[in-house]
Design brief:
Distance between the termini: 22 Å
Shape: globular
Order of helices and strands: EEHEHHEEHEEHHEHHHH
Number of strands: 8
Radius of gyration: 17 Å
Number of helices: 10
CATH class: Alpha Beta
Number of domains: 1
Strand order of the largest sheet: 1-2-3-4-6-8
Structural class: alpha/beta
Largest sheet: 6 strands, mixed
CATH topology: 2-enoyl-CoA Hydratase, Chain A, domain 1
Amino acid sequence: MKNAIDQGSVEFQIENNIATITFQHPLSNSLPGKVLRKLASTITELGEREAVRVIILKSAGERAFCAGASFDELISIEDLETGTVFFSGFAGVINAARKCPKFIIGRVQGKAVGGGVGMASAVDYCLATKFAAVKLSELAIGIGPFVVGPAVARKIGTSGMSHLAINATEWQTAEWAREKGLYTQIFDNVEEMDAEVVALATRLASSNPEAMALLKKAIWEGTEHWDELLAERAAMSGKLVLSDFTIQAINKFKQK
């Protein structure tokens, strides 16, 4: 049987100038380093393809959108370099989405934790179901949402990000996330959400690619320093994950 760190995948398909990226992992779509790196490279590759005009980002399954960092990989980190590389995987996904010249539509069918909230924040337009509650649980295991923080704060403001980061054990509802600006719309079920995702993607696929690329660049103005910023943040998390506090906290979470 495969180790959890080696499981998971990222796949994509292109139809009618719409690329759909689907990531999956059997443990609630958690994100080991391998999946993070593949996700970042896939976003970058599709951004460069002339046949792609808009991208949909989704996860597999009907329940959790993304459980965030892989606990199995976190607990296996034994030195600063390895820790920094792992958290750089989240930085890579956020920066790939930020720099991609195509609009990315997020499709969030269920709960999003930690890095999952970061991914929902890094897309350009995010749709969700009423089951898509959010939580930044990093502080509860002795680290913090340092890498995803800039993306989350950009979407929901410093106040909203602080609320999630400090109250690390409590879920906030999808409606809360919509009111804060993380989600643009929430739906009663997946079918209604998917109908709107397809309708929006279809409209964008027929829009002027040059105009969309310029608009995306304007929307993300002021984030040009994020390559350096998120690298620094990854090093912060990489150091904290080595602490006895964090190791014990992760083990407790795994035993639940």
